[in-house]
Write a structure and sequence with these properties.
alpha/beta, Aspartate Aminotransferase, domain 1, Aspartate Aminotransferase, domain 2, 2 domains, 7-stranded mixed beta sheet, 3-stranded antiparallel beta sheet, 12 helices, binds 4'-deoxy-4'-aminopyridoxal-5'-phosphate
Length: about 350
């Protein structure tokens, strides 16, 4: 009997979630540490009364609210079960025999997984020595089979965001038949004015696709809501790939309530970015080539010490996210959590001599 399963699935690396150990300091999943935004828990509680009914298939209220905020028609917005699901759906929408997708590496670990599942060939372009996208090499990697180029800005897990000049260069170099996908999961944490809001700057372009999420700054990681902005044609194609009722009733109400609490979201983001500045500066005293971060995490380029440092942190009750042989991603937490991480790093570096 022949094996009914696809052979290529066995080669896909597993998505590694940040560890969760009760009572540990969790700096491993890029969450914001302050709990849900005001009004969100009440909205979910209210939505719970109606969960014997299917949710709104079109996610109309949320898409309308987003459309009003960002100034594009709702037909250009697709919502999904987190932006990670939409990234997968976009890949399904562009896949076909021989089709390729270009992205930087190291970048978000879901890209190679989603590409292989969709049947797309991944073309990975190594980051520069300072852990940024190598924009010129990415442009050079675009060929006749390329359907899309992903720019992860800020880049998970290394932290830097792309400048307007860099993203402009990509748009100017690639044909309009190649989608330029800008993954802005961490956009709210960007403080460098050289790094643009991609919806504002590029959503008028026919090949621009921008991803955003409610998981990070908006504090809804556990409910799974993300969205995508693109042309009506691309949005229409991706929405055909979305599993019906992908955004559940509680998630839609919670996202609407979170949008109402934007002021508090901004206040919390400012706490994170000021802690980021302090923590990255202190970490650089110990590990000199920590790159700039525009996100709510930063990168410790520890090379083959990455796993050892993560184990050392875990012994101290701190969870971080190692990428073996490469580096460690550390989420910005509360001030005392960041201090604990810095103490752990100091002890580790000193013990290395
Ligand atoms: N893009 C990037 C760059 C991310 O880091 C993440 C979360 N780790 C996502 C997308 C997906 O986020 P979500 O599915 O929670 O919206």
């Amino acid at each position: 009997m022949s094996d009914p399963l696809r052979e290529d699935l066995a080669s896909i690396p597993r998505y590694v979630p940040g560890k969760a150990i009760p009572d540990a300091v969790k700096l491993s999943s890029n969450e914001v540490p302050y709990g849900p935004l005001p009004g969100v828990v009440d909205a979910i509680t209210e939505a719970a009364e109606g969960i014997h009914r299917y949710p709104d298939l079109g996610v109309v209220e949320l898409r309308d609210a987003l459309a009003a905020r960002i100034g594009v028609p709702a037909e250009r917005i697709v919502t999904g079960t987190g932006s990670v699901a939409l990234i997968g759906h976009l890949m399904q929408a562009v896949a076909g025999p021989g089709a390729e997708i270009v992205y930087s590496w190291r970048s978000f670990e879901a890209y190679p997984i989603a590409a292989t599942v969709a049947g797309l060939r991944s073309v990975r372009v190594p980051n520069t020595a300072d852990h940024r996208h190598d924009v010129d090499a990415m442009i050079a990697a675009v060929g006749p089979d390329t359907r899309a180029v992903i720019l992860c800005s800020p880049n998970n897990p290394t932290g830097p965001a792309l400048t307007a000049e860099e993203i402009d260069r990509v748009f100017d170099a690639v044909p309009e038949s190649v989608l330029v996908v800008i993954d802005e999961a961490y956009r709210e944490f960007v403080t460098d004015p050289a790094c643009p809001d991609a919806i504002e700057r590029y959503s008028g372009r026919p090949n621009a696709v921008v991803f955003r999420t409610f998981s990070k700054a908006w504090g809804l990681a556990g409910l799974r809501v993300g969205y995508m902005v693109a042309t009506p044609e691309v949005a229409g194609a991706v929405s055909r790939c979305v599993i019906p009722f992908a955004v559940n009733a509680a998630a839609q109400r919670a996202a609407l309530a979170a949008l109402e609490a934007e002021g508090e979201m901004r206040r919390r983001v400012a706490l994170v970015t000021s802690e980021r500045k302090r923590t990255v500066m202190a970490a650089r005293e110990l590990v000199p080539d920590v790159p700039d971060s525009q996100a709510n995490f930063f990168w410790l380029p520890l090379g083959d010490k990455a796993v050892e440092f993560a184990a050392h942190c875990e012994e101290l009750g701190i969870l971080v996210r190692p990428f073996g042989g490469d580096g460690v991603r550390v989420t910005i937490g509360l001030p005392e959590e960041n201090d604990a991480l810095l103490d752990a790093l100091r002890a580790f570096v000193e013990a290395q001599g």
